[in-house]
C-alpha cells in the first residue's frame, strides 16, 4: 500500500520522506544534523526532512520504487498499532509539535491524551510533561512555519485515510 501523504505527481516533491527508506549522500545527512535523539521512535524522519527543507533542499518521492514496510492491518485494511507504537508515536507527535513551533497542536494533543481512555496515550502525556519539566526537549524552530506543515494532526495533507 502506498503512503497516503500528498506529493506532486509530476515532480515527486513531497513535504517529508518516510524513514522506511531514505537515500541521500552522507554529507547531506550530517549537514542537516542527522536524526535528532529527542525522537526515540517515529517522527525522526519528518524532523530530518523538515531540517533538510530549511537548508533549501527538495524531497522527492518515487512511487515506482516500492519498499515493503510491515504494518499490521485488520480485516478491513485499517492500520492496527501495537501498544508500544501508540505510546512512542504519541510522545514523538508531542515533541514534533513542540520543536516545530506549534504550541496549539501541542496543547491540543496533551489535552486529548490526558483525557482519553488509552493508557498508552496518558503515559505519553506524562512522559512529555516530565521531559519538558527537566528541560529535555529540543528548542523550538521554524516559528514562521516555512517548512513545517501540520494538517489535521498529521505532518502533511493526506490523499486518503487508512
TrEMBL record:
<dbReference type="GO" id="GO:0016757">
    <property type="term" value="F:glycosyltransferase activity"/>
</dbReference>
<comment type="pathway">
    <text>Cell wall biogenesis; cell wall polysaccharide biosynthesis.</text>
</comment>
<keyword id="KW-0328">Glycosyltransferase</keyword>
<protein>
    <submittedName>
        <fullName>Glycosyltransferase like family 2</fullName>
    </submittedName>
</protein>
<comment type="similarity">
    <text>Belongs to the glycosyltransferase 2 family.</text>
</comment>
<keyword id="KW-0808">Transferase</keyword>
<dbReference type="InterPro" id="IPR029044">
    <property type="entry name" value="Nucleotide-diphossugar_trans"/>
</dbReference>
Amino acid at each position: 500500500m502506498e503512503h497516503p501523504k500528498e506529493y506532486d505527481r509530476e515532480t515527486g516533491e513531497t513535504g517529508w520522506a518516510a524513514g522506511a527508506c531514505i537515500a541521500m549522500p552522507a554529507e547531506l545527512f550530517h549537514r542537516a544534523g542527522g536524526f535528532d535523539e529527542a525522537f526515540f521512535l517515529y517522527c525522526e524522519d519528518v524532523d530530518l526532512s523538515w531540517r533538510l527543507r530549511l537548508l533549501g533542499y527538495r524531497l522527492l518521492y518515487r512511487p515506482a520504487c516500492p519498499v515493503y514496510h510491515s504494518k499490521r492491518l485488520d480485516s478491513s485494511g485499517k492500520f492496527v498499532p501495537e501498544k508500544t507504537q501508540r505510546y512512542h508515536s504519541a510522545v514523538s507527535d508531542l515533541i514534533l509539535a513542540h520543536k516545530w513551533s506549534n504550541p496549539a497542536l501541542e496543547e491540543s494533543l496533551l489535552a486529548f491524551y490526558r483525557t482519553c481512555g488509552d493508557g498508552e496515550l496518558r503515559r505519553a502525556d506524562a512522559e512529555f510533561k516530565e521531559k519538558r519539566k527537566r528541560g529535555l526537549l529540543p528548542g523550538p524552530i521554524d516559528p514562521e512555519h516555512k517548512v513545517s506543515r501540520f494538517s489535521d494532526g498529521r505532518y502533511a495533507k493526506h490523499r486518503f485515510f487508512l
